[in-house]
Amino acid sequence: MPGVALSRWTMSYFALALLCLLGAEILMTMGIGFPTSDISAPASLIVVHLVAIGWLSLLLCGALFQFVPVLVARRLYSDLLTLPTLACLAGGLALLLYGFHQLDSETGTAWNALPFGGLLLMLGFVLALYNLGRTLWSARPLTLPARFVVVGLASLVATALLGVDFTLILSGASASKPLVELVALGLPLHVVAGLGGWLTFTAMGVSYRLLAMFMLAPELDGATTRGVLRLGIAALAVAIVGGVALIWSGGEPDWALLAGGLFALGALGLYGRDIGRLYHERKRRVIELNSRMAAVALGHLAAAVLLTIVFTATGTLGRHVGALVFLIAFGWLSGLGLAKLYKIVAFLTWLECYGPVLGRVSAPRVQDLVVEPHAARWFALYFAAVDFAVLAEFVGAPVIARAGLAAMLIATIAIVAELVRIRRLADVPRATRLPEGARRPRLLVSVVENA
Amino acid sequence: MAVTFVDVDVRPTLRNGGEPFGEIMAAVNALAPGEGLRLLATFKPVPLLHVLGSKGFSYETREIGGGDWEVLFSPAGAARDPETVAPAADAGAWPAPAREMDNRDLDPPEPMVRILAATEEMKPGEVLSALLCREPIFLLPELAKRGHGWRGGFEPDGTTYRILIRIDGAEDVGT
After folding, report:
1. Which pTM was predicted?
2. Is the ipTM of this complex over 0.90?
């Protein structure tokens, strides 16, 4: 039972993830890709994957390398693998984005980067899965939040396999009939597996533990939480496996998606009840900024669910799918991600810097590393800008949406600046900043001292 | 010097469906300095352990048959007869805790901060017992670095984690 050490490269994952988020926001503000172009245009594919892989997946991988060990109280299987994993993911993403750019140019090129990007990304995700999988395997039987992560990782496999299929067909590297059929009709499955299974389901699982931890709320492992897990597995299995089966048997995946959607609705309903309980039964009455902003992000998830129901019922889902994906990516996932980063970066930095001297000298508290009122303003601007952009997209006004995106960009830059200040201990009073024996943390790498 | 214990038997009150909390707190407030309380109840009074723990009492619980429990509350700092102190079941040859703390209601990472502060004040070989609401996964590497030994596990209630830390006792850890 050796406990859990700091993950050395997690800060590098976070930094690269944030750069990708800023890059995507800059492109969208400049009118490249969605919302100026259609969501499935090549330029939009660059933006979408910059957000989904570069920002959200790197963020989640970096966080999981640190927090899967926390969830299961075991050390990460390999600290060494995390850097090559990051290199594969970053290199694969760069090639993938270049491949999308090649698709966009009129003249055909002799070679296309897409399949190389797809395969390198696959390698990176396989390394991450192996590392996290071995860690989880050693900790069986798994706690409930850890099971959510397992389902999320399985969805990542499905997403990546479908993604590799797309790169093979779109680049002309393969023309196999079943693979072509999947590309023709399988885009919704790729999106559901990635956005719903990998990103949302994993975030839900981790949120159970993090919210309970940061608000002193009871850990939930009752019938509703098990219900969320089971219904979620059913939803993903029906939508993805069922969808692929329908496509290969000559049909369209719509019925599988609808049935999966109903299961997902049940899962999200129960999840909402659980989260309501966590906030309601917390012992800590005054909660920190990260928990307040997480609540706002959860509100955006609820709004996305309601809007999906309304659009499906009125037959307008196809017209609004871009804005809906935007709402899920930026209101829910990015909102939650930025909120939790604000806490996690402060906590990990505090532990790295002051852990070795705790009890020996008077060290600052975690909250001394942050100035919440400053950050709160930028979070408020961020969410307001997201809502503004989403509304503009719903009414079909991409130029106005770009004003919202510009505001999102400003808010994100400011939040990143706050994170850098945390890492630099810039807001800790100078007198107590570096007591004897404490080491100033480096921006991108955590120095891990093994016992 | 062993602690003198004042007996409070709340079993009749409980069997009549009454609420013994007021009775117990009255007895606690009437204790002379250095005196402890011997409580007899029909169940393990976990919330009360919590309340008195926060008032500076350490306690030992014992099931005495028929579903009844005896709890010995000792004032903090009192010298206790090691024979009467029942350390955690797996404590082996470790001495009784010299210091106990209840960190269950503290915001993380405050439990870790307090435990490390306490270990710096204690003498080699002494044992610290602390109650937490989860396994202190970030504390353990720090204890290892400082050469302390530890044993820990969840209490039967499944939500309280008790860790015993022996100062400079790293060689005793059987992991």
Report:
1. 0.82
2. no
